[in-house]
Amino acid sequence: MVINDEVALRMEGITKRFPGVLANDRINLDCRKGEVLGLLGENGAGKTTLMNILYGLHQPDNGQIFIDGVPASIETPAKAIQLGIGMVHQHFKLVEALTAVENVILGMPSQRPPFLDLDPARVRLLNLCEDYGLYVDPSTEVWRMPVGQQQWLEILKALYRDAKLLVLDEPSAVLTPAEGEQLFKAIRKLSQEGRSVIFISHKLGEVLEITDRITVIRDGHVVGTIPTKEATQHELARMMVGRPVMMDRKSRPTMAEKEPVLIMENVSAKDDRGILALKNFNLTVHSGEIVGVAGVDGNGQRELAECIVGLRKRTGGSIRIQGHNVDRVIDDPSFVGYVPEDRHKTGLFLDLTVAENMVIKDYSRPPFMKRGLLQYNAIRKHARKLIKDYNIRTSSEEVEVRHLSGGNQQKIVVARELNAEPVLDVTSQATRGLDLGAVEGVHDTLLSERNRGAAVLFISTELQEVMSLSDRIIVLFRGEIMGVVEGEGADVFTIGKMMLGHASEVAA
Amino acid sequence: MKKTRKLQEFIALPGLGQLVLSGVRPLIGILLGLLTGAGLIALTGVDPMDAYAALLEGSIGSPQSIANVLVRASPLLLGGVGVAIGIKAGVWNIGTEGYMYAGAIGATAVGIIPLPVPPIVHIVLAILAGMLLAAVWGLGPAYLRAYRGVNEVVTTIMMNYVAIFFTSWLVHEPQPMAEPGSFFPMSKILAPTAKLPILISGTSLHPGFIIGILACILFFLAIRFTPFGFRTRMLGANPEAARYAGVNVKRYIVFALVIGALMGGVAGATEVMGLKNRLFMDFVAGVGYESVAVALLAGGNPLGVIASALFFSALKAGGATMSIQTGVGAPMTIVIEALCVLFVIAVGYGERKRLERVDKAKKEGEEVKKYVS
């Protein structure tokens, strides 16, 4: 590796605040020429925000970026590209209907306007393919390409613009092992040419293999930067997850009788892209029990929840709830309560009123409907009761949900789903984006659900709350259970490692 | 500070506050449209006040002109409420022109047959036939939209052309529906039993507008008070969440589009049976598209459709008088219509932005309070 001490990028004291969240807190980071820098951190640690600032998608509230030692203000991605920064987002930014070469020249001035100069571009693209061993067919439309090739195309697009600093956000997530090898070869080549690479990943093994140095971010600030040679998986996991804080575990009564409520056997399901996201999944949740599902985002949590409530078709296996073989259960609020992970997208109707949102599943049952007509008095009365019971702050039940704060919106979902005392509660990221008080409220509600005798499946990427709330914790990794841990006395590092896919080491 | 809060609370109140606001927004838009229209009229060298006075006189100046307005409003009411249901459900039904043709074809096919039945039976049969054919017309785009994801705007517009030229073919000899020996291609005349009665002699006022207003009221109540309406509103507000709430999203998309087709069919049927007595090409040139504008002006509210359909037909009816008395061409009324729709949409958009800003400020205020206290 041709690392010299010349610094290609330096970010100094970068601070970015979003309403209610300090996403980046005085972050310092530097990347030398020809260096592969690993950027490691849990979801929501602030990696993406930092990289979006670097690429001109966000403006920092404070701090300075230096490119090649020169202060740079990056207002737009165009400016970032001009400064030699290339970004490969986790979710590709390709135009699916266009061919590879068209995607590559998209946004670049033509040499002979008003015509496109596709032919020279094609030649240059093919040369780049050859140079880096990342092969794509220039005249194939993106939608016809396998995901791996789309990934290559994203990288080639940046190189076509002669990126000196390449940011790869979770590049291996969609790659097969063989493709991963190809990617690593390309990265080594880049580094030999003196280009710098920032490599963002959750996978410790990869980061240890390909990077020269590693910067770990947690809760919006840099925990530390260490040379990869001196790093171990254990050390990195410790840095990512944090100091062994005394977990504030919720006290709870012991439940006398426990009956299996949810039984999943060999359940498989695909994600929206058609890739297997749950693999032969087995799980039993009992009454009076909170089973926490820990794991890094995107390891099958969403598919798990949607399979159980019947929003997603499973490709195999069986799901029984209280002995019933059910395909679609979310319509019956007394059976299953479901708090979906994206309340704006699936949980609420922002343009309907609070009262209407409270009855989106019961509206055709008495007392809300009589003689075929909706009974708004009953609906409003019901809403007023829930507003009081769940302490929802709104000026009236007739206000559109859009006007409420995030915490109060979530309370509406929780109130609606749990009010009918279902036998099974499935919650997915139930506290995401809520302030501390609201989080506490949701936790207390779920605990009282458990004490009432409900079976609770608590899916969250926040390890802290999973550990504080769960009687039993399962760790999801790539659609499989990596391990099961008793909630009482669970060890954060053990779970943290399982989240990163290291089951065997835990046993050792 | 306190005053603004009072105002906000008033606005947030159910019923009155919202009704006032939702009614005020289109009114502001219409006012701006009329003002801009006045400017354009002034540019042609005519005093806008004179022009608008003539317009007013031509629309409500005499019983005849009022009858004229109501006759013109009839297809706009029926077509407009159909489009409005689509808007409520989140689909853009631009096929009303075609449904009107399809409805007219169905009604004419049954209407030209001399049936030995009382008029009421013949009328109902003819209208049902029109609705049936219109529904068939709407079913294709509806199916493609719901189950194949094909954009309904494109398909419904294309189906319009098919309907129009299909009509043209039908009324040409030697098709059985065509009037033999006529110098203009048209269908045979309807049997007397299939004609809608004239309500006021000396005018062409037929009961179509009553059916239209009843339909608007009925759909308003259905949208507000029935599970069907609630599901439709859920679908329009957030299809993903509607699916999660148990709505059969695809089926309801089909419902919404086919209801629009049915209403368009009634509009076409009554137009032939009450006014034209025959079917011919261009018998409702552009009225279907105008229905879309009517529904837009009403913001998708069925009750609003009544007001906006009457407003549009008043402009149309008064336009002729304006043209005769002041020399401002009748097409100016179409310009004014378009301006009103654009301004109503713009005002609605601005209002939404303003509310979003208010909410954001409010939420941020809550955040700050949390940290301070």
The largest sheet of chain A is: 6 strands, mixed
Largest interface, by Cβ-Cβ below 8 angstroms: which chains and how many residues each? A-B, 35 and 29 residues
| Count of domains of chain A | 2
What fraction of residues of chain A sit in β-strands?
25-35%
CATH architecture of chain B: Orthogonal Bundle
Helix content of chain A: 25-40%
Overall pLDDT confidence of chain A: 86
Description:
The complex is a heterodimer of chains A (508) and B (373). Chain A has 17 helices and 22 strands. Chain A is of the alpha/beta class. Chain A has two domains: 7-241, Rossmann fold, CATH 3.40.50.300; 260-343 and 422-507, P-loop containing nucleotide triphosphate hydrolases (Rossmann fold, 3-Layer(aba) Sandwich), CATH 3.40.50. In chain A, strands 6-7-8-3-9-10 form a six-stranded mixed β-sheet, sandwiched between helices. Chain A has a six-stranded mixed β-sheet with strand order 16-19-20-13-21-22, with helices on both faces. In chain A, strands 2-1-4-5 form a four-stranded antiparallel β-sheet, covered by helices on one side. In chain A, a hairpin with a 2-residue loop joins β9 (213-218) and β10. The radius of gyration of chain A is 25 Å and the shape is globular. The relative contact order of chain A is 0.11. The model of chain A is unreliable at 504-508 (pLDDT under 50). Chain B is an all-alpha fold and 373 residues long. Chain B has 14 helices and no strands. Chain B has a single domain, classed as ABC transporter involved in vitamin B12 uptake, BtuC, CATH 1.10.3470. The radius of gyration of chain B is 23 Å and the shape is globular. Mean pLDDT of chain B is 88; it is low at 1-18 and 367-373. In chain B, 76% of the residues lie in helices and 0% in strands. Chains A and B meet through α10 and β18 of A and α9, α10 and α14 of B.
